[in-house]
Design a protein that fits this description.
Shape of chain A: globular
Shape of chain B: rod-shaped
Number of strands of chain A: 14
Radius of gyration of chain A: 22 Å
Strand content of chain B: under 5%
Number of domains of chain A: 2
Distance between the termini of chain A: 25 Å
CATH topology of the largest domain in chain A: Rossmann fold
Number of helices of chain B: 13
Largest sheet of chain A: 8 strands, mixed
Number of strands of chain B: 0
Helix content of chain A: 40-55%
CATH architecture of the largest domain in chain A: 3-Layer(aba) Sandwich
Order of helices and strands of chain B: HHHHHHHHHHHHH
Helix content of chain B: 55-70%
Largest sheet of chain B: none
CATH superfamily of the largest domain in chain A: Glycogen Phosphorylase B
Number of helices of chain A: 17
Structural class of chain B: mainly alpha
Structural class of chain A: alpha/beta
Strand order of the largest sheet of chain A: 3-4-2-1-5-6-7-8
Number of domains of chain B: 3
Largest interface: A-B, 32 and 33 residues
Distance between the termini of chain B: 36 Å
Oligomer: heterodimer
Strand content of chain A: 5-15%
Chain lengths: ~450, ~325
């Protein structure tokens, strides 16, 4: 089996959520198939500046082919277009301009993948919101397996992505909440999809004492791992924790791991250790009492999965449907929506050892059951097998196959993408602001896991 | 703070969160949302508590707004006011024509009304002047009240926070103590710790352990009590002592007796160590008590010897004394 993995950035030192996800999947699937990763020369997800050399490279034994980005992102232009499509009545042309402005625009990449499409069984596209995924899903609907990594933000409400979700061969969701959201936004229930997520390379053994000695952490602590950013909910976390620290002078400390792009309050019980390598990170996680995930928007929190893999409970932001749903389904974490719930939950996890231990054990079992690598690999391979078996010959297609209903759901196995509106219709500004569209999508954690298997 | 007992392998996160939320509701009294509470707090701060809400130049502002206007010009209206003039000739003509005017109309009611109005105007002006002086005083009072209320509100808020902090600390300590107690398991057959026990808890455990052993001093005890009963003048006290034992304080009484015996064994005090009489109380609660505790290990090490020894003969007077506790 031959697979092409297409992602916006790729590299051993690129640790963005979707990019790391793509790398893990590519490396794992390389054990079962011939995998080629197709990506851009960009390293920075804000500017898409070409920093890596174009051409073929090897990353951890996987072949990687990079293509230059045709133009860097103009942040002012992108901001203006985002404001137009997210908050104003707009047109399809506005959305297409927004997509072009967002980038990473690489026509060479798209053309290359289209050219090799006949030689590969499937093209795995990561991150629906970017240029490459949209164009390749439209050009190769029969080969495209989309890993949307969608969050509940305004992008999901744009009209140009509905046909993508309805037109690809299959979707590999990260969580039941993500699937419910995409199905509600695009009515793509007929498209094969499975909740997969991603595993993690959690070490077999950790040395929490080594971490404590190295960083002189003598007190019990909660840990946050990730980019320290207002958009990740860190501002609220700091506010809550400072109030907690004043109420509980002998409570636990807060350790932050990750690069900071916001000011961290100077507090004797908040320790920022910066970016750490994997060994230190996992040792820190093992030494901690719990992981705090304050993010409002997540399609899948890999850090939470790593914490569960190490038997640590999670305290998550309950306003993030995905995190809340994972806590409920795993019975391995508590969640908060305001300060009172934050402090009560944190204190419960801190002071109640049996509860902490039981949640941690639940997390470990949850990780093994759903996110261990053999499980993930099996889900991907099963999906590929299912798609292969289900693909009929072109002449065997039923009469309705290939012609799309108004909702854009194919009734057969071969798929065609819905065509874009005509020249004038495309420019008619009659689409509602995408934020309004997103607000109409039902929210909440998916507790019933019967569909998520 | 919420306290969850994990009794089985199954925990339900949703159930725990429901408990947490119900606990929060109990604390709040009313199930306000966070936004509602913030709104209430902001209103309160703005209207009452925030010291910045009281303008420092409020007095001047008030005085500026309520600056007393110059009193309205009043007039004096008498009987001849209608005909007055500074020109003598005109005045003379008017006086000549006054009867003719009175023939045409009656000016007297008009003169009286205007006279009364003049007096009323004067009284109103005086009253207004007095009210303005009072308003200034009222403002001073209100201003001081607002300042004091602000200060009190801030203090109340501070005290509330301190109280909450202390309650949290207390709760934390209780939880931690409970957790530690849960970690340390009592095993009846376990070997006692090697270190010297010094706390009351260890003393109690040792006593409990001894209580579980067959007691040889239980059989003579009724005899002692019986011996104490015939004493004239003191049967009530003896019965009280028995009633005390029957009421569940038997263990405490035994402990005292044992402690007394131990002290008696070492100091050869005899029946006095029963602790029932005043001397016994003094021996238990007096300055010898620390020595008794520190020498507890020795007493325990010879525990078997003490308990296997024949029960000491208790004096009737000591047994019949009322308990000190």
């Amino acid at each position: 089996m031959k697979l092409a993995v297409v992602v916006q950035r790729y590299g051993a030192d690129i640790n963005g959520g979707a990019e790391l996800h793509a790398r893990y999947i590519a490396e794992r699937l390389a054990r079962h198939a011939t995998v080629e990763v197709v990506t851009t020369c960009a390293r920075d997800y804000v500017t898409w500046k070409n920093e890596l050399p174009a051409g073929v490279d090897q990353v951890n034994g996987v072949s990687v082919r990079r293509f230059p980005v045709s133009h860097e992102r103009n942040t002012n232009d992108f901001g203006r277009r985002s404001h137009r499509v997210f908050e104003k009545t707009h047109s399809v042309a506005d959305e297409l301009d927004w997509l072009e402005s967002e980038g990473p625009a690489s026509p060479a990449l798209v053309n290359y993948v289209e050219k090799i499409a006949n030689d590969v069984d499937f093209v795995i596209l990561f991150s629906y919101r970017y240029y490459h995924a949209w164009h390749l899903a439209r050009r190769l609907p029969n080969k495209a397996v989309l890993v949307p990594t969608a969050e509940r933000d305004a992008t999901i409400g744009l009209s140009i992505f509905g046909p993508i979700f309805r037109g690809v061969r299959a979707l590999m969701y990260n969580s039941p909440e993500e699937r419910a959201m995409i199905q509600a936004a695009s009515a793509n229930d007929a498209v094969p999809g499975v909740v997969v997520g991603v595993g993690s390379d959690v070490p077999e053994r950790t040395e929490p004492e080594r971490f404590r000695r190295k960083f002189r952490m003598g007190r019990p602590f909660a840990i946050y791992i990730g980019r320290i950013d207002e958009n990740k909910g860190c501002g609220e976390l700091f506010s809550h924790f400072q109030r907690y620290a004043s109420a509980f002078p002998r409570g636990m400390d807060l350790v932050l791991i990750g690069s900071a792009i916001m000011d961290i309050p100077k507090h004797p019980r908040i320790h920022h250790l910066g970016f750490l390598d994997d060994r230190d990170k996992f040792d820190a996680l093992a030494a901690s009492d719990l992981l705090i995930m304050p993010s409002y928007f997540e399609s899948l929190s890999m850090v939470a999965l790593e914490a569960w893999a190490l038997g640590r409970p999670v305290l998550a932001n309950g306003r993030c449907d995905v995190l809340k749903g994972q806590c409920i389904r795993s019975n391995a974490g508590l969640y908060y929506e305001n300060y009172e719930e934050f402090v009560e939950s944190l204190y419960s996890l801190e002071s109640n050892g049996p509860l902490n231990g039981r949640l941690g054990r639940n997390g470990r079992e949850f990780f093994k059951r759903h996110y261990a690598w053999p499980v993930i690999e099996r889900k991907y391979l099963d999906m590929f097998e299912q798609l292969k078996r289900g693909l009929p010959a072109e002449q065997d297609l039923p009469a309705t196959a290939g012609s799309y209903s108004e909702k854009g759901v194919a009734s057969g196995f071969s798929r065609k993408i819905e065509s874009l509106p005509g020249f004038f219709a495309r420019r008619r500004r009659n689409l509602p602001p995408s934020e309004e569209s997103v607000a109409r999508i039902p929210s909440g954690a998916v507790v019933d896991t019967r569909k998520s298997a | 703070m919420s306290d969850f007992s994990v009794r089985s392998d199954n925990v339900d996160v949703e159930q725990i969160m429901r408990q947490i939320r119900s606990r929060i509701r109990e604390k709040r009294g009313v199930d306000y949302t966070e936004e509602e509470i913030r709104e209430l707090a902001n209103v309160k701060l703005e209207k009452f508590i925030d010291p910045k809400g009281v303008r420092s130049n409020l007095l001047e502002e008030y005085r500026r707004v309520s600056t007393p206007e110059p009193p309205a010009p009043n007039y004096a209206f008498g009987e001849d006011t209608l005909y007055e003039t500074h020109r003598g000739a005109i005045k003379w003509i008017r006086s000549m024509l006054r009867p003719f005017l009175k023939l045409l109309f009656n000016p007297n009611p008009l003169i009286q009304a205007l006279h009364i109005q003049s007096q009323l105007n004067q009284k109103a002006a005086e009253r207004t002047a007095r009210r303005e002086q009072l308003d200034a005083l009222h403002y001073e009072v209100i201003h001081n009240l607002v300042v004091e209320l602000t200060r009190t509100g801030v203090e109340v808020k501070s005290l509330k926070m301190r109280l909450e902090s202390m309650a949290s600390r207390l709760d934390f300590d209780e939880r931690r103590a409970r957790a530690l107690e849960g970690v340390v398991q009592y095993r009846p057959g376990a070997v006692p710790p090697l270190q010297v026990p010094s706390g009351q808890e260890q003393q109690r455990r040792q006593d409990n352990r001894r209580d579980q052993q067959p007691r040889r001093d239980q059989s003579p005890r009724p005899q002692n009590v019986q011996a104490g009963q015939p004493q004239p003048g003191q049967p009530q006290a003896g019965q009280e002592a028995n009633a005390l034992d029957n009421d569940g304080n038997e263990r405490r009484a035994r402990r005292r007796r044992r402690r007394g015996r131990r002290r008696g064994g070492s100091e050869d005090r005899g029946p006095r160590v029963e602790g029932r009489g005043p001397e016994g109380d003094a021996a238990v609660a007096g300055p010898e008590q620390p020595e008794d505790r520190t020498s507890d290990l020795g007493a325990r090490s010879s525990n078997q010897t003490v308990e296997s020894a024949p029960a000491p003969t208790e004096s009737p007077s000591a047994a019949s004394e009322p308990p000190s506790e």
